[in-house]
Amino acid sequence: MTEIMVSDVNLNSVCERLEQHCCVDQNQHNLSSQPQTPVLKRHSNTGAKLWGRVRSKLLRQKLDPQTVQSKNWHMDVIEMNGIKVEFSMKFTSRDLSLKRTPSKKQSGVFGVKINVVTKRERSKVPYIVRQCIEEVEKRGIDEVGIYRISGVATDIQALKAAFDTNTKDILVMLSDMDINAIAGTLKLYFRELPEPLLTDRLYPAFMEGIALSDPAAKENCMMHLLRSLPDPNLMTFLPLLEHLKRVAEKEPVNKMSLHNLATVFGPTLLRPSESEIAKAQHITSASDIWSHDVMAQVQVLLYYLQHAPISFVELKRTTQYN
């Protein structure tokens, strides 16, 4: 019997691994004395059927008020064709899942202000951003659903710990790791910044700028806002922007359009920190800010993704002339 532990309930990312276990060795039943080449026979669609049962179980649990309100992990087991899946789950409110939490350890990179990281590394763009982008472009740009499909949580946490401790073999880890885990690590880095990459200070202006109806006024406003970003933020945002454009160029293969990428990254790059949310009297929780502004956050990033290439030098030169 094969046991597969699933702690992050990331069903799609482990389905393929499960299918690899859904095999039996036919040699067990071959009584011939002649040497035989091992033949593996797959139970038809066992993995898909089994995960269908798991998904149904999760949906039933999600609709159970007692389960949703409980803060404890709920353990369950589902078996089929000799395959045993053990998984644990608990439900976290949106307020907690969206919260930006500054790190207490300023020696790492996750949860640490971007200017602190770039100053320590003596770099223009954080090392984690450069390496994750490079790896995705090397072997993930053709991956269907890149940045949309989640990586395995344990892999992402392993990469997070490696970057936080500046592990020497990080490059080896990256080359061996599933590409969706690397994409997930990059998203997690931006999501855990103490304040969004496009900053709390400029957030209201981004919301106002994207709502402008006059194209010329919108262009002037949106470019002025980029020029107003701190240099580490802007120098990180621009290469990320060009990277996402290159990913979208492969849309016929990876199915990730500019709009899909804006939907994934917009809230991650713009969602305000908790302190800013608390200042807004008409917004009382992270879930409110999510429902209130998420579409505008997506539209802000989509605007820049659809824009012609933006040069840091040209932006700063325009600032000098104004």
Walk me through what this model shows.
The protein has 322 residues and is mainly alpha-helical. 57% of the residues lie in helices and 8% in strands. A 3-stranded mixed beta sheet has the order 1-5-4, with helices on one face. A two-stranded antiparallel sheet has the order 2-3. GO terms for molecular function: GTPase activator activity. This is Rho-GAP domain-containing protein.
Which structural traits does this protein have?
322 residues; mainly alpha; two-stranded antiparallel ribbon; 8% strand; globular
Sheet with the most strands, sense and barrel status: 3 strands, mixed
Proportion in helices: 55-70%
> Low-confidence runs (pLDDT<50, min 5 residues)?
1-12, 18-44
Average of the residue pLDDT scores: 79
Widest sheet: strand order?
Answer: 1-5-4
Number of helices: 17
State the distance separating the first and last CA atoms: 71 Å
**Inertia-based shape:** globular
The radius of gyration is: 23 Å
Broad structural category: mainly alpha
